[in-house]
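re: ur question from earlier - yeah i can do the single chain one, its not a big deal. heres the input i used so u can compare w yours
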Amino acid sequence: MTYENILISSENQIATVTINRPTKLNALNVATIQELHHVFNTLELNPEIRVIILTGTGEKAFVAGADIAEFAHFSVEEGAHLAASGQELLFDFVEKLKTPVIAAVNGFALGGGLELAMACHFRIASDNAKMGLPEVSLGVIPGYGGTQRLPQLVGKGRAMEMIMTAGMISAEDAYRVGLVNHVVPQAELLEFCNGIAAKILKNSPVAIGQAIKAVNANFKEGVNGFETEIKAFGKCFGTADFKEGTSAFLEKRKADFKGN
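and the output i got, formated as tokens:
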């Protein structure tokens, strides 16, 4: 598939997906969401890709929000469908990937952009990044999971304040409240993310996928996270990676995980 709005590169089992709409500050439109779904699905099925880094082109924006012009005149039904389809195609889809996804937040991450970053498994921000959910200033609310994921990451009170004021917070404030894991200079952002990805590559892809599933389960209503963990733990015992990992430990050598 040829992509109009994203760029892809890969090296050493790490794929970098770059949202490339610089004239729109990488704003999400329906076409970009569909392209991202396709590329994430393709990378998930590629055994040669073990980590994905998601970023935006340029130095101004990761994703500056949704493309408002697309939905400014939507009806109630169209608005609900927009949120439902977007969550299914991209935001929930990314969260559930077995392949780790690191958001490299290189500037503004607003509205749908912050929601996309929060759907990733964790976030690294450049020191010039600004984050927020400004939807109520447009007479609407976050519709791509923002009202759910933000409280999970920063707590109910801080999330309520961010959403109700529609304000932005700095990268340092985002780090302080746990919204991002690290803040680094803009020029070092991708190098830093690749460094963390390299550490991930040393470990079992199968175990990482099961860990993602177990951690996510804790935040799903009606799902017992402890039961999910027990089942995922048990499944690991039937994998070649488990046999390799334990053998390598006992033999005092580095494990060579194959992801099965």
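The chain has a mean pLDDT of 96. not sure if urs matches, ping me
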